[in-house]
Specification:
By secondary structure, the chain is largely without helices or strands. It contains 1 helix and 2 strands; from the N terminus they run ββα.
Length: 77
């Protein structure tokens, strides 16, 4: 994780009725039981750790996703 340095882009589409539109969905999921957390190089005194190291985040993510909400608050310090 980037400790808040990089933000996810907002998905926007500018479509044309004159041309076909092609969409591609790409998903990345960490390995089960793998711990993920902020990249150590992005944690400084000026930018302290904003997210905990978490395990099985994909499971937590999908549980919240099915409820229509986001799970990122689970990882916030």
């Amino acid at each position: 994780m980037t400790n808040g340095v990089f933000k996810s882009p907002v998905h926007r589409v500018l479509s044309s009725s004159e041309r076909d539109r092609i969409s591609l969905a790409v998903f990345y999921t960490p390995e089960p039981n793998k711990e993920i957390g902020p990249e150590e190089a992005l944690i400084t005194e000026e930018r302290p750790k904003a997210y905990k190291t978490v395990k099985d985040y994909a499971d937590v993510h999908w549980d919240y996703y099915q409820q229509g909400s986001r799970a990122i608050h689970v990882a916030k310090v």
